[in-house]
Amino acid sequence: MTANERSTTWRYGVCGLLLCATMLLYMDRLTISVLAKRICDEYSFTNEQYGSLDAGLSYAFAAGAFFFGMLVDKIGPRFLYPAVLTAWSAAGIATAYSDSIGASLVPGGDAKEQAYYGFLACRVALGFFESGHWPCALVTTQVILSRADRSLGNSILQSGAAIGSVVTPIIVLALKTDDPGGWRPPFTAIGCLGVLWVIPWLAMIRADDVKHRVTTEELPESDRTPQLWSVDFFRMVAVLIAIVICINLTWQYFRVWLPMYLEKSHGYEDSAAWFTSVYYVSADVGCIGIGLLVKYLISRKWEVHRARVVTFSLCAGMTLVAVAVAYMPSANVKENGVFSTPSLLLLALLLVVAAGSLGVYPNYYSFTQELSRKHQGKISGLLGTIAWIGSGTMQKLAGRNIDETKSYATGIAIVGCLPLLACLVLWFVWPAGRTPVTETRPPEPPPAEPATGIKAVSDHVREA
């Protein structure tokens, strides 16, 4: 039995497993964000140093993305996927021992310097191996799902980011202690969870399930990708580069700086961690909601590309609300034990931003799957490399700006506008001729001229 013969239940079961992988990825990545204030206070890290830790993860992610993209196209995700997931889980566990790792890397440094380089080494390892997730996941959804189903499948895959972001603060608050070094247990516990994912993956995925193939049954709905190195191909790549840079900067900025922004600019303390969970619930609703909306519009006879572009634009409009968030005056979290009106408005606007900033991803992934069936890993890896170089550069500059201005307003306003820029590029640069790719059929050959003379006699003989 091949993936083409598998049931719909199996296909979406695999998407659910991809959701779990994304969830684990974000849990390992976000643990340090939830504990950022505690760790920075204990080791006297500046905002720029904290931003540099994420820059290290980002650059390592960029280095690994194209490497793992080429690798997954060559050997497939069946064994590569569990290998990279186990490796990044080990890097997450190692973060709990960052100061010891740093002491071996910088034997002559002081405790602060040793801790910094230890954290940096663990973040680099985490980012490098996490970069294998997206090429493996997108190759999987491209192979097992039809074009019309990919936005929904990708939304399920991506929603793991929000679920992981919701669960992480809860686990961290439950496991951390007030003792020195009490931030370590969450890293160890969350890293150990990753090993369990390997078991159902190997049980569900067989050798032929995630191999690229084009069968006769698949041809009526297969995506007609543009010819490699054609003008259309380069225009589509250019659009995707613009999109991934813009949407990644928006999502990653709030991932890294939201807890500290709420604590330092608006007086939230432990409640910042709880609101962060609500923020990611809203992101998850936006992500799954967009996938369902695309599926609904297609069922109403909308063309697939049009449904994706319209819903992508809707999400870009939602992230624009961040401009209002940036310039809201600081207010006490509570007045007489009750949340103040400005504070409630701030939280409501942030929930809108959350839904839009994650809702853009399912359609973005579907756009990348329009370019090539054979080279999906390389394409997603290359785009990931570009996106994370941008993200790594942004985080360090953002930390420096916050240190200098003591404000998050500039960064929030800029990243809130970026998805709208991506939307404009999509509307005006994406090749118009690439829109109805699946519905186009080759023209029927003209009817043959009636045979005469000797040919007619030979035809009659052949038929007899």
Separation, N- and C-terminal Cα atoms: 41 Å
Number of strands: 2
Rg, alpha carbons:
25 Å
Encode the helix/strand succession as letters.
HHHHHHHHHHHHHEEHHHHH
Largest sheet: 2 strands, antiparallel
Q: Class by helix and strand content?
A: mainly alpha
Q: How many helices does DSSP assign?
A: 18
Mean pLDDT: 84
Percent in strands: under 5%
What sort of overall outline do the alpha carbons produce when their principal axes are compared?
globular
Strand order of the largest sheet: 1-2
- What portion of residues is helical? over 70%
> Any low-confidence stretches, pLDDT <50, length ≥5?
214-223, 435-448
Task: Write up what this structure looks like.
This protein has 464 residues and is mainly alpha-helical. The protein has 18 helices and two strands. The chain has helices spanning 8-34, 36-43, 47-75, 77-95, 98-105, 111-130, 133-144, 150-175, 184-204, 231-266, 270-299, 304-319, 322-326, 341-359, 361-368, 376-405, 409-429, 453-463, and strands spanning 334-335, 338-339. It has a two-stranded antiparallel ribbon. A hairpin with a 2-residue loop joins strand 1 (334-335) and strand 2. It is globular, with a radius of gyration of 25 Å.
